Each structure stands twice: as structure tokens, then as C-alpha cells.
Amino acid sequence: MTTFDLPRAATTLLVPAAAGLICACLLLALRPLLQRYALARPNARSSHVTPTPQGGGIAVIAATAVGAALAASFGMPFSATAILKVLTAALCLAAVGMIDDLRPIPVVPRLALQLAAVVFLFATLPPQLRIFEMIPITLERAFLVLGMLWFINLVNFMDGLDWMTIAEMLPITLALAAFSSFGAAPPEVLPIALGLAGALLGFAPFNRPVARLFLGDVGSLPIGLLTGWCLLELASRQHLAAALLLPLYYLADATITLFRRLARGERFWDAHRSHFYQRATDNGLGVMQVVTTVFLLNLVLAGLALTTVTAASRSTDLAMLALGVLAVLAALFRFSRPPTASKDARKTQ
């Protein structure tokens, strides 16, 4: 591929700008088709009350891939083979998500197809990529495959509110791009993180509350894989604390909700409104209040992750993780309780 020698700062800005523009243009072209063939109708999980087109993730993933290709043409130093492999796995998941958006796939074959994409990705990873070196690599890879499968699905589960994925993934991808820029994460993370951040910005106006377009599984599943892979690469550079801090809100909300549903004997794959962010809107918080809280929380978590990366100290890692857990628990507590002050105020009027 022909490369052009552009200053690094200019390249860092051009990739997300191009991805955002490409995503927005694709969405303008695709929206009439999605309106006709891919309407998401309200169900037990929905936060919307009118049928809304879904499938905007097609443009997000396409723009991310183009952004990564542009990064290569601009001369960014990374392994094009590694980028191609992770994008291939993401596109396979996007295909599964597209089919599921149009005609729901039963849970077992859906999980089997997702697992196949994840196994393909891990089969292409170099053996020197290790996180838990004290255990055999086969056991570690099995654990990581299951963790990636859960992460992909929790990103999908959490994509149930306008701008929620933007509020979560934009701070994460920008932080990952920053870490890669100064060497804390592998160089392959930079084009994916920049491309995805730009594509999400291009999607944001269409998903702004009240949304005119949803990502759909075609977007949330591959976004989960791409972000999970970037976090895995960050953790492989001995920055496990940072890799846990960045998605900590999603991890906590989705995992706690899963175990609560299992404890009640519910089928966890059924549509529901048990997530903390969903309970927040049911308890009277506005959509913008919820997503603003999540966005600001993720900025805090990104700051804590940056502290662990720069300090490179186990005691700092533990302290920042403790602060991150406290911040997330505070947000979950706020989401799970009705705003009693406003209710009391209304009663006295």
C-alpha cells in the first residue's frame, strides 16, 4: 500500500475526522432503507415508544474499517495483518448481528456464531500475548475467550438507551488511542480506537435523544469485540488495572444485573428492563441525565486508568481500582433509587 508521510498529530486528527464524515454520509444514504426494512418495534426491553429504524452500526463498522485503512495509508506504524484479523472477526459478528436484527436468531445458534468469531480471533493472536502468565496459556486463552464473549454481549445488553453507547465508548476509545500514542498500548490499537471514536461521533447526531436511528446488533456486537480486543492488548502490556477501569461501569451494571436475574430464576437472555440505567429512567431520571452521568463517570474512570499507566505501581493500581469501584457504585446507587427530593417537592406543590 502506498503511504504518505504526514505528521503524527495531523494523522491522529484526520483518521477520526474521516471516519466520522464517512459514517454520517453512509447513514444519510442508508436511513431510508433501514426505515423500510429494519424497524425496531418497542418490546419489554425498549426505552422507546415508537418504531425506530435500527442498523446504524453498518455505517459505524464500515467507517471504522475505512479509518483503519486510512491510518495505514498515512504511514502509522502498526501490523496491518493484526488489524485485518480483528476487523475480519468484527465483520463476521456484524453479519450475525445484521441477520439477528432482521430476523431474530435463537439464543444457542446466536451464541455459537459469536463464539466462532471470538475463537477465530484468539487463534490468530501471537502466543507471546499473555496477561496471566502464572497459568498455562491454554487455560488462559479459554478464560479470555469466555470473557470476550461476555464482554461482546454486555455491550449489546447495555445498548438500550439513546446515546448510551456514545457515552460509554467514546471516552474508552479516546483513552485507548491516547495510551497507544505514547506506547502504553500496542500500535495496532491506535487505528482501531481512532476509527471507532470518529465513527461514533458521526453516528451521534442520529442517535441523539430522541433517537432517529439505533445501532442494532449489527453495531453493538462488533463494537464490543473491537473494544474488547483493544482492552486485551492494553492489558497485555501489564496495564490490567487500566483495562478494567475503562469499561468498569458496563462491567458492573451488566454483571450485577445478570447475577440478580439468575438468582431470581429468570432467563437472562429474555428482554427485560433490569439494568441500572433502565431502572434510572423508570425511576424518573431523564435520558440526558443518565447518559451525562455515564459519560462523566467514564471520564473519571479514564483519568484513574491514566494514573495507573503513568505510575506503574501495584499499590497505585489497587488504589485507583478502589476509587473506580466506589465511583461506579455511587452511580449505580443513584440509578437504582427514585429521586425522592423531587417527589417530595412535587407533593408539597
Structural class: mainly alpha
Total count of helical runs of at least 4 residues: 14
User: What is the percentage of strand-forming residues?
Assistant: under 5%
Uncertain spans? 1-5, 341-349
Strand order across the largest sheet: 1-2
Number of E-type strands: 2
**For the report, how would you describe the main beta sheet?**
2 strands, antiparallel
Q: What letter string, H or E per element, gives the SSE order?
A: HEEHHHHHHHHHHHHH
Helix content: over 70%
Radius of gyration: 20 Å
**Cα end-to-end separation:** 69 Å
Mean pLDDT: 90
Quaternary state reads single chain
Shape descriptor: globular
Features of the shown structure:
disordered C terminus; 14 helices; globular; two-stranded antiparallel ribbon; mainly alpha; 1% strand; disordered N terminus; 349 residues
Short description:
This protein is an all-alpha fold and 349 residues long.
